[in-house]
Amino acid sequence: MADRVARLSAEKAVVIFIRSDCPMCHTVATLFSDLGVSAAVHELDNDPRGRDMERELVRRLGRSPPVPAVFIGGKLVGSTDRVMSLHLAGKLVPMLKAAGAMWV
């Protein structure tokens, strides 16, 4: 399952693993959309192998629940707290530009 998560996390400049019933997942996905980023969003609860991917994300993040799990440029950034901290510190947009997720 580690290979599947690695492959999916590198398919676009920004990849977000979420659950459809998670309000913080929606918040993070909306943030990227509002920034003009077209992220690949994977709803784990709608994927037949979603549970296995969740376990792999728990292992990588060291926390449960593991969603939202955000990857930028194929690298795990973290969950809501990390993404929001980067955004508030003015570091998220430069990271997105460096990954080719935005051009403004």
Strand line-up across the major sheet: 2-1-3-4
Q: How much of the polypeptide forms β-strand, as a percent range? A: 15-25%
Helical amount: 40-55%
Count of DSSP strands: 4
Order of helices and strands: HEHEHEEHH
Unreliable residue runs: none
Tell the overall outline. Answer: globular
Please provide a written account of the structure.
The protein is of the alpha+beta class and 104 residues long. The protein is built from five helices and four strands. A four-stranded mixed sheet has the order 2-1-3-4, sandwiched between helices. The N and C termini lie far apart (35 Å).
List keywords for this structure.
single chain; 104 residues; alpha+beta; 4-stranded mixed sheet; 5 helices; 46% helix; 16% strand
Condensed summary:
The chain has helices spanning 2-9, 23-34, 50-61, 80-88, 92-98; strands spanning 14-18, 40-43, 69-72, 75-78. It is α+β, with helices and mostly antiparallel strands and 104 residues long.
Q: Topology, pairings included?
A:
Blueprint: H1 2-9, E1 14-18, H2 23-34, E2 40-43, H3 50-61, E3 69-72, E4 75-78, H4 80-88, H5 92-98
